[in-house]
Each structure stands twice: as structure tokens, then as C-alpha cells.
Amino acid sequence: MRLFSATLATETNTFSPLPTSLEAFRKSVWLRPGEHPDDAPRMCTAPLFVARNRAKAEGYTLIEGSCFAASPAGTVNRDAYEFMRDEILDQLKAAMPLDGVLFGLHGAMVAYGYDDVEGDILERARAIVGPECVIGVELDPHCHLTLKRVSNADIVILYKEFPHTDVQDRAEDLLDLVLRTIRGEIKPVMSVYDCRQISSYPTTLPLMRGFVGRMFALEGKDGILSVSAAHCFPYADVPEMTGRMLVVADGDKAKADALATRLGEEFVSMRGKTMPEYHSPAEGVKIGMEFNDAPVVIADPADNAGGGAPSDNTTILRQLIEKDAQDAAVGPIWDPVAVRLCFDAGLGAHFPLRFGGKIGPASGQPIDANVEVIGLARDCWQSFGPTKVPLGDCAAVRIGGVEVVLIDNRTQALGLELFTNLGIDPLAKKILVVKSTNHFMAAFGPIAKKVLYIESDAPLSRTFTKIPFTKVNRPVWPLDETTSPGLIF
């Protein structure tokens, strides 16, 4: 038995002012065949990582393709996408004949000329391997679950958790089902229900926690192989941007259709009930400072690099400084120039520094302050579930009672290492401000005595009706009150 695996992934915010170039992939995940580290999966590489670890025990040969992934940002350069795509497809051709293919994709990648990147690469892969080869795909739930990609794959599985702590577990599930299909033990069929809605669905909150639990309980029983919820990625202006339910069943399309419809209708019934309460910057900082326990974790989803934002907005930081907050830490602020200046100044230096507020109006005004450099570290990483995410070179500066983590490789707040790399103890802080939507909860949730969410003036508005969509197929809630959810595949 012969399997092939590769990754091509990013999450594209088509409204972001930060174009995604080949260099963005080189700075994040750029691994040629055989170069993937043995310690942990990287962004969207879990299918290859899992398949490598199980090859000997399962008795198959794994042919490794390239793995390319970039931090979320704006639309991908067309030449860059086609270069990476064609490299992987050439490797796929060279690996033939194959019994199975495992793709680690994100599901919300957009390139100039390609609204459905994943559909494009899967259609081309299917043309190469033919109808008998089993194609399995792992996607992020913040994806566009397009009909083109579903029709060109045999098995599609999405992470269930948000924060995405289960990427390796779902890759294990995918490999199990692909191997069982190749061995003739199952005949997967897929059904998709279009919920016609845009929202956010943190699985750390009770309503989605219960929904995910019911999804898990359905799998492995009565011929149901897998159940996935596509949350959608609301910062992409593409036609099929909507929440959808996906069910994979063993040979029984009617059963898959019925379950996808039932779960899809339940998902629709949750409209407007799945997101946390949001505070203004002034209100959120005030509540955090007055709370009588620590640490208080304050999230800034609107400046989340994981959604394509620059991560250089200064609004909440300015509130902390103006209110003379003590024992507070903020991170990360992406500012490569400021990081370099801190290294030039050296540990313990006191000097005037301008940082943040660089990319555009939604970044706010830069901070001008006399800072103390309290931490410097090269080539840093942070953990996120089973994966490792690069931070690049990092610097920490202190302004009064506020400490700020500056990074040169743009990414969101994920692991405690964001602070501990630089000698900042998160447990010793009264307030921790993290630029993240909900992924921070995996590491920061367990230590938080209180979690607050702020709607800042950064670019990722949580009020989806404010986003200027032009390509999205309408009607879709909450842009439209009346919608027509239903089975589409």
C-alpha cells in the first residue's frame, strides 16, 4: 500500500492590507520532502506527521510531499500559490501509483484568481490519481466547505475544537478512515447541509461545548464515521462563505443526509447565542483592573493575527498606560523594527521607542514612550496544543507598570511561552492582554481567574454586518434576516 501526504495552507482575510507572499510561507512552514521535524506537527501538517509515525505498524509506504503554510494575512500572490501547488502536484505524479492521498489544508486560502484554492488543488489531484485512489483531507473548521472540494475528496474531516487543540487527533481519525476505505472495510459517503449563516463558535463556551459533545457521541455508531461543523471564516469575501454541517457515513447516503439535516437545523437554532459578551476598551480595562483576583485575561479578537489582522493595534495598551495599570502584560505586538531597535539597545537599556500603530488606520496611533528593555530572545516558539508555532525574535519592554511583548514573526497569542520566553511570569500578572480570538484559551484559560473579550477598533470587527462583502452568496444570516438553509450535497 502506498500513501502520499502534503500540506498547503493559510487562512486568507481578503480585506487585510497584508498581501501573502512566498516569503510569508518561508517564515512559517517551508518543509520539503523528508524535512518535517519529528517532534510535533506544524500548521496543518498533522496528516503527514501522523502518517509517518504509523507507517511501519500499519504496513504501508508513505511518500512525503512538501509542506507549505503561512500565518493568516491577505490574498496570496498568484505566482506563489501556483509555484507551491505545482511542486506538490509534480511530487504526486512522481509518487504514482498510489492507494491513498492525505492532504493537510486549511480551507480558507484565497489567491489572486482563485477563490477556492483547496478546491483547485483537489480537483487537479483527482485528475492525477484517478477515481479509485482514496483522497482524505483535514480542514480547519474556519474554512469554506465548498462543493468543489467535497466532490473531489472521498473523506473530509474538520477539527472539532476551537481553540484547535485536536488537530492531531482528527488527523488520526482521517488516517483510520482512509486505511479502512483502501482495505475495503468501509465505503464512505458524504453529506453537506448549508446553514446559511456567519458567526463565531468558541467550543470553550457551554452551548458549543455541548454541541461538540453530541457530535463525538454520534461517531462510530450506526454507520456514522465522522461528523464535522464548518464554522466559516467570516473575513473572506468568497461565494461559499457560510457555516455548513458535514457527515460521513458508511455507504448509506440517506442516513448521512438525515443526520446532516438534523445537526444543521440545530446549528441554525443557535444563531446569535454562541459568541461571548464584548466590552469597549475603556470598560474592559476598568473591569479587569477592579476585579479582585488575578490574573485577568483580556482578549483582543479584533487585532488577531490568526484572522489576518496586523497585530499592531495600540488601543487597549494605551488604555492601560493612561489608567496607570500595574502588573499588566500585553502581547504580542508585531513590530520587527521595534524588535531590532531593542536588540540594538540591549538588555536593561532605557531609551525612547516608537512601536505599534504602523500598518494602517485600524492599527491606531503608535506608542511613543521611554521604555526599559526587560527581555530579549532569538528564534522563539510558542506551543498550541500538540503543535509548535514560531514567534521569531522577541523583545519585552516596560512602560510604567505595563510590560509589552514585541515580535518580528507575526502570529497570535497561543502559548504561555509568548511571555515566559522573555522572563515574564503570566501567573504573577494582574492583567494579561492577548491578541487572539479564542485560541488563547487552550493555554491561558486554565490560569485565568476571569476572561474578558474586548471589541477594539482594530480591523477584525465582531459585528459581521459591518464587513463590506460583495461576492458572498446571499441570503446569509446576519446579513439577511430570512435565509433558506438546506441539504446541498
Automatic annotation (TrEMBL):
Obligatory cofactor(s): Zn(2+)
Transmembrane domains' residue ranges: none
Recorded superkingdom: Bacteria
Record note on cofactor: Binds 1 zinc ion per subunit.
Alphabetical keyword list: Hydrolase, Metal-binding, Metalloprotease, Protease
Metal-binding listed as a keyword: yes
InterPro entries: MlrC (IPR009197), MlrC_C (IPR010799), MlrC_N (IPR015995)
Residue span(s) of domain Microcystin LR degradation protein MlrC C-terminal: 298-471
Function of the molecule: Involved in peptidolytic degradation of cyclic heptapeptide hepatotoxin microcystin (MC).
Identification of the protein by name: Microcystinase C
Source organism per UniProt: Oceanibaculum pacificum
